[in-house]
Specification:
Elements lengths: L2 H13 L3 H8 L11 H7 L6 H16 L10 H7 L6 H11 L4 H17 L6 H10 L3 H16 L7
Helix pairs in contact: 1-4, 1-8, 2-4, 4-7, 4-8, 5-9
Length: 163
């Protein structure tokens, strides 16, 4: 986990205490609305000229604002998807396969909102710091492979203590 991602998540949680700011950030993933959120990214030190990074930060900010997140969670994406469904669910397998088939950050950012919505609707506490780090490094081949392996491992891992 990077310190910058950790500080960003804390910053967004803090500024979302203001309902006006939270309202702006909720809709910041919409292209027509993202301009209103730029001041918060730049205020944190994000170079908004880098589109993929900007969209990654906006996605995380939007999810935190929409779901009124007050603390960062502990679940990585694979584990959170697994917890949304009963064991051996074909719907869960379909979701993780879709995530694992993403070839770049832009595609992943396009696919994630509906999955994040599902995770939050189940009351699961996602690790947004980890997810942001994953998004920021996903375009680098080695990092992408490690991220996919980590998500797959945590998704498919069985808890043998319960059996």
């Amino acid at each position: 986990m990077s310190e910058k991602s950790d500080n960003f998540v804390k910053y967004i949680i803090e500024i979302c205490q203001n309902s006006g700011t939270a309202s702006i950030l909720k809709n910041s993933v919409r292209e027509s609305m993202e301009i209103r959120a730029w001041e918060f990214l730049v205020g944190f030190g994000i170079n908004i000229e880098f589109e993929t990074d900007r969209k990654a930060y906006l996605l995380i900010a939007s999810e935190i604002a929409k779901n009124k997140i007050s603390t960062n969670g502990l679940l990585n994406l694979g584990e959170a998807i697994a917890k949304c469904y009963p064991p051996d669910s074909t719907a869960a397998s379909s979701k993780i396969r879709r995530i694992l088939s993403c070839q770049d950050t832009d595609e992943l950012i396009m696919v994630l909102p509906s999955i994040l919505s599902l995770i939050n609707s189940k009351g699961l506490k996602l690790d947004y710091v980890n997810l942001l780090d994953c998004l920021l490094w996903f375009n680098f081949e080695d990092s992408q492979k490690k991220t996919k392996l980590r998500w797959a491992n945590s998704f498919y891992k069985k808890d043998f203590a319960d059996e």
